[in-house]
Amino acid sequence: MRIGQGFDVHTFAKGESLIVGGVNIPYEWGLKGHSDADVLLHAIADACLGAIAEGDIGHHFPDTDPTFSGADSAGLLKDVYALVEGKGYTLGNLDCTIVAEKPKMAPYISPMREKIAELLQAEISQVNVKATTSEKMGFTGRKEGMAAMVTVLLQNKSCS
Ligand SMILES: Nc1ccn([C@@H]2O[C@H](COP(=O)(O)O)[C@@H](O)[C@H]2O)c(=O)n1
Ligand SMILES: C[C@@]1(CO)OP(=O)(O)OP(=O)(O)OC[C@H]1O
Question: Could you list the residue ranges that cross the membrane (predicted)?
Fold first, then answer.
């Protein structure tokens, strides 16, 4: 068994899409990044890479590489999960926390769990996504950006 944790932050900007956990969310602000800036999928990718001691997302997909400009983070996560499987592991479970003052994430939690489970070839019951505000404090509280934290447990394929 291996455990990993991931954390990511992206800033809100006008004229950008808001894609979180692979789900498009209608909102007046979107998230800015070199890729599509899916803060949750990036934190999941980092948690998976951490669990297999393979560095981080920026190491595998540098933000200086034009290949990843506007990249679909779902594709990046699929590539990361292929590395996980190549090392002989499969998802045990995943627990995610999104920190955002706005928008309200509750309506999008189920579609996010479904999308993440699909990307990681897992059951929805293996994926939890929750959201919290930071009670108007800090950069998330000022609605300057969004953060996501993830803990992942991987299990040996032979034991699953
Ligand atoms: N962006 C968010 C933030 C929170 N929620 C939901 O609201 C509940 C209460 O949030 P607090 O920060 O006041 O604890 C939280 O447990 C979430 O269910 C949300 O949907 N979207
Ligand atoms: C995903 C990558 C690559 O396009 O770019 P960003 O969208 O800026 O995201 P970040 O979370 O800073 O992670 C690393 C990157 O290299």
Answer: none
